[in-house]
Amino acid sequence: MIDAEGQTLGRLTSIIAKLVRGKHRAYFTPHFDCGDHVIVINAEKVKLSGNKTEEKVYKRYTGYPGGERFMSPAQALAKKPAFMVEKAVKGMLPKTKLGRQAFRNLHVVEGTNHGHEAQKPRLLNLNEIKL
Fold first, then answer.
1. What torsion, rounded to 10 degrees, do the Cα atoms 13, 18, 19, 25 define?
2. Are 41 and 114 in contact (CB under 8 A)?
3. Any residues with CB less than 8 A from the CB of 17 and at least 6 apart, and which?
4. pTM, 2 dp
5. Which regions of the chain are under pLDDT 70?
6. Pairwise CA distance, residues 89 & 61, whole Å
Protein backbone atom coordinates (compact mmCIF):
# COMPACT_ATOMS: atom_id res chain seq x y z
CA MET A 1 0.00 0.00 0.00
CA ILE A 2 1.35 3.41 -0.99
CA ASP A 3 0.15 6.80 0.21
CA ALA A 4 0.30 9.27 -2.69
CA GLU A 5 -0.30 12.38 -0.59
CA GLY A 6 2.31 15.03 -1.43
CA GLN A 7 4.22 12.77 -3.87
CA THR A 8 5.27 13.90 -7.35
CA LEU A 9 3.36 12.03 -10.07
CA GLY A 10 6.30 10.79 -12.17
CA ARG A 11 8.48 9.64 -9.28
CA LEU A 12 5.52 7.93 -7.61
CA THR A 13 4.38 6.10 -10.73
CA SER A 14 7.86 4.90 -11.70
CA ILE A 15 8.18 3.17 -8.31
CA ILE A 16 4.67 1.74 -8.62
CA ALA A 17 5.43 0.39 -12.11
CA LYS A 18 8.53 -1.40 -10.80
CA LEU A 19 6.56 -2.96 -7.94
CA VAL A 20 3.65 -4.06 -10.16
CA ARG A 21 6.02 -5.53 -12.75
CA GLY A 22 8.18 -7.27 -10.14
CA LYS A 23 11.51 -5.70 -11.11
CA HIS A 24 12.42 -5.26 -7.44
CA ARG A 25 12.61 -9.03 -6.95
CA ALA A 26 15.86 -11.00 -7.13
CA TYR A 27 14.10 -13.63 -9.24
CA PHE A 28 12.59 -11.21 -11.78
CA THR A 29 11.91 -12.88 -15.12
CA PRO A 30 10.77 -10.73 -18.09
CA HIS A 31 8.27 -13.31 -19.40
CA PHE A 32 6.67 -14.11 -16.03
CA ASP A 33 4.30 -12.08 -13.82
CA CYS A 34 6.13 -11.93 -10.49
CA GLY A 35 4.91 -8.51 -9.36
CA ASP A 36 2.96 -7.48 -6.29
CA HIS A 37 -0.51 -6.08 -5.88
CA VAL A 38 -0.20 -2.36 -5.14
CA ILE A 39 -2.91 -0.25 -3.50
CA VAL A 40 -2.50 3.51 -3.96
CA ILE A 41 -4.49 5.67 -1.52
CA ASN A 42 -5.05 9.46 -1.62
CA ALA A 43 -4.64 9.57 -5.41
CA GLU A 44 -6.33 12.98 -5.55
CA LYS A 45 -3.49 14.55 -3.49
CA VAL A 46 -0.68 13.80 -5.94
CA LYS A 47 1.45 16.78 -7.07
CA LEU A 48 2.59 17.89 -10.50
CA SER A 49 5.83 19.87 -10.74
CA GLY A 50 6.28 23.08 -12.67
CA ASN A 51 3.46 24.38 -14.89
CA LYS A 52 2.12 20.92 -15.72
CA THR A 53 -1.24 21.62 -14.07
CA GLU A 54 -1.94 24.26 -16.74
CA GLU A 55 0.14 23.10 -19.72
CA LYS A 56 -0.14 19.28 -19.69
CA VAL A 57 -2.85 17.84 -21.93
CA TYR A 58 -4.42 14.37 -21.95
CA LYS A 59 -5.65 13.51 -25.45
CA ARG A 60 -8.13 10.88 -26.55
CA TYR A 61 -9.98 10.16 -29.75
CA THR A 62 -13.66 9.19 -29.98
CA GLY A 63 -13.35 7.42 -33.33
CA TYR A 64 -15.43 9.95 -35.24
CA PRO A 65 -14.15 12.69 -37.59
CA GLY A 66 -13.20 15.72 -35.52
CA GLY A 67 -13.55 13.65 -32.36
CA GLU A 68 -10.25 14.58 -30.71
CA ARG A 69 -10.86 15.47 -27.07
CA PHE A 70 -8.49 17.23 -24.70
CA MET A 71 -8.41 17.29 -20.91
CA SER A 72 -6.17 19.17 -18.48
CA PRO A 73 -4.94 17.62 -15.20
CA ALA A 74 -7.26 19.93 -13.26
CA GLN A 75 -10.26 18.60 -15.19
CA ALA A 76 -9.00 15.02 -14.74
CA LEU A 77 -8.73 15.49 -10.97
CA ALA A 78 -12.25 16.90 -10.84
CA LYS A 79 -13.72 14.09 -12.95
CA LYS A 80 -11.77 11.01 -11.80
CA PRO A 81 -8.82 11.53 -9.42
CA ALA A 82 -7.32 8.08 -10.02
CA PHE A 83 -7.03 8.67 -13.80
CA MET A 84 -3.65 10.43 -13.77
CA VAL A 85 -1.92 7.76 -11.66
CA GLU A 86 -3.45 4.89 -13.67
CA LYS A 87 -2.52 6.43 -17.03
CA ALA A 88 1.04 7.17 -15.96
CA VAL A 89 1.62 3.63 -14.64
CA LYS A 90 -0.03 2.03 -17.68
CA GLY A 91 2.31 3.98 -19.95
CA MET A 92 5.33 2.56 -18.09
CA LEU A 93 4.24 -1.07 -18.41
CA PRO A 94 4.84 -3.26 -21.49
CA LYS A 95 2.20 -3.13 -24.22
CA THR A 96 1.64 -6.90 -24.19
CA LYS A 97 -0.58 -9.49 -22.50
CA LEU A 98 1.87 -9.50 -19.62
CA GLY A 99 1.62 -5.73 -19.22
CA ARG A 100 -2.17 -5.87 -19.19
CA GLN A 101 -2.04 -8.62 -16.55
CA ALA A 102 0.38 -6.60 -14.44
CA PHE A 103 -1.90 -3.53 -14.68
CA ARG A 104 -4.69 -5.57 -13.08
CA ASN A 105 -2.51 -5.77 -9.94
CA LEU A 106 -2.82 -2.00 -9.46
CA HIS A 107 -5.65 -0.63 -7.32
CA VAL A 108 -5.90 3.19 -7.19
CA VAL A 109 -8.47 4.77 -4.86
CA GLU A 110 -9.30 8.28 -3.77
CA GLY A 111 -9.24 8.80 -0.03
CA THR A 112 -7.99 6.27 2.48
CA ASN A 113 -10.81 3.67 2.34
CA HIS A 114 -9.60 0.97 -0.06
CA GLY A 115 -11.58 -2.15 0.89
CA HIS A 116 -8.56 -4.50 0.97
CA GLU A 117 -8.07 -4.65 4.75
CA ALA A 118 -8.57 -8.42 4.79
CA GLN A 119 -5.33 -8.87 2.81
CA LYS A 120 -3.39 -6.95 5.53
CA PRO A 121 -1.43 -4.61 3.20
CA ARG A 122 1.80 -3.01 4.45
CA LEU A 123 2.28 0.74 4.05
CA LEU A 124 5.47 1.53 2.12
CA ASN A 125 7.25 4.82 2.80
CA LEU A 126 8.49 6.02 -0.60
CA ASN A 127 10.98 8.43 0.96
CA GLU A 128 12.91 5.52 2.52
CA ILE A 129 12.53 2.84 -0.18
CA LYS A 130 15.45 2.06 -2.50
CA LEU A 131 14.49 0.36 -5.78
1. -160
2. yes
3. 89, 92, 93
4. 0.91
5. none
6. 20
CA distance 67 to 29: 41
CA distances from 10 to 28, 98, 114 (A): 23, 22, 22
Which residues contact residue 92 at a Cβ distance below 8 angstroms, ignoring those fewer than 6 apart?
13, 14, 17
DSSP-based three-state secondary structure for 8: strand
Which CATH class, in words, describes the domain spanning 2-49+77-119? alpha beta
Q: Which amino acid is at 46?
A: V
Q: Please answer whether residues 46 and 7 qualify as being in contact, where contact means their C-beta atoms are separated by less than 8 angstroms.
A: yes
Determine contact, residues 60/69, Cβ cutoff 8 Å.
yes
